Amino acid sequence: MEKYPNPFSDGGFVDAVRYSNLNFPLLRRGKVRDIYDLGDHLILFHSDRISAFDVVLRELIPMKGIYLNKLTAFWFERTKHIFPNHFVEMVDDRSIKVVKANRIDIEWIVRGYLYGSAWRSYSSGKRVISGVELPNGLSYAEKLPQPILSPTTKSDVGHDVEISKSEAIDRGLVSRDEWDELEEASLKLYSYYNSVAESVGLIIADIKLEFGRFKGELIQIDEAPTHDSARIWVKKYYCVGKPQERYCLDKEFLRAYLMAKGFNGAGAPPQIPMDVIRQVAWRVRGAYEVIALGRCIDELPLKGLEEFI
């Protein structure tokens, strides 16, 4: 435990958690989560660590793990009817219990909007993105004619790289039937996630999903769309042609701050001031409370990046 100023009120301190110490065998520590082995099950503990550009930062985001955990449980509970997943129960505010599956080493990224690496490819002249031909004339952050799937390899070290259906099958990562099933599942899940988000005034621009094998069946594993794993925009402030970080409820605000300070993964990251930590904390909390509890987005004290540079 480390003491941090309470990011949600003036005065007072709260405990921020860098590492857990549960009474179970520790399987591994990821960038954010600590994973414990219970034999046929796992405990996923959500710490207050945060990463950017594959680097775990020195600073913690107080209570971040609580809101990641709650939103993950919210999504898994509500999507079992669409595709089975590994969720068993929420153990406490920071932990969920899941079945232990064999991970498929592919990250299934679904994009509903032209942003990030897809925009960089498109703006450089490419019109075929992940095997899907896009029309001319699309703008930055514009909604795509239909969501596209752009899977990548899943590696515990190094950067993920895009992988095609034929490459995945040739490498034995999945069979042809499994690919088809998981492609359909990814698109269905994205449609559901975004429909829920839109009902509360948000847009889920893209998501990343993981799947595994459990007792001969395919199931969704890892995490559902949260501050850390999806781009979540505020619908009332969405504007084609412009960056969306001003009101986003995802990690792009922090990435944009770090890039403005000259850090993109190489060298030592800059120190993150408490005012920026507060903004990140509110965005993590806001993603959960707006999606799961219906909180009004206007109640969140979001500030633009320009106020911190």
Low-confidence runs of at least 5 consecutive residues? none
Whole-number average pLDDT?
Answer: 94
Tell me the major beta sheet.
Answer: 7 strands, antiparallel
Gross geometry: globular
Helices and strands: which structural class?
A: alpha+beta
End-to-end Cα distance, whole Å, is 30 Å
Helix content: 25-40%
The value of Rg in angstroms is: 19 Å
Helix-strand sequence? EEEEEEEHEEEEHEEEEHHEEEHH
Question: How many distinct beta strands?
Answer: 18
Q: What percent of residues are in strands? A: 25-35%
Number of helices: 6
Explain what the structure shows.
The protein is globular and about 55 Å long. Helix 1 packs parallel to helix 6. Strand 4 and strand 5 form a beta hairpin. Helix content is 27%, strand content 27%. The chain has helices spanning 64-79, 116-123, 165-170, 176-199, 252-260, 274-293; strands spanning 2-5, 13-16, 26-29, 33-37, 41-46, 51-52, 55-56, 87-92, 95-99, 102-103, 106-113, 128-129, 132-133, 143-149, 152-153, 202-214, 217-221, 230-234.
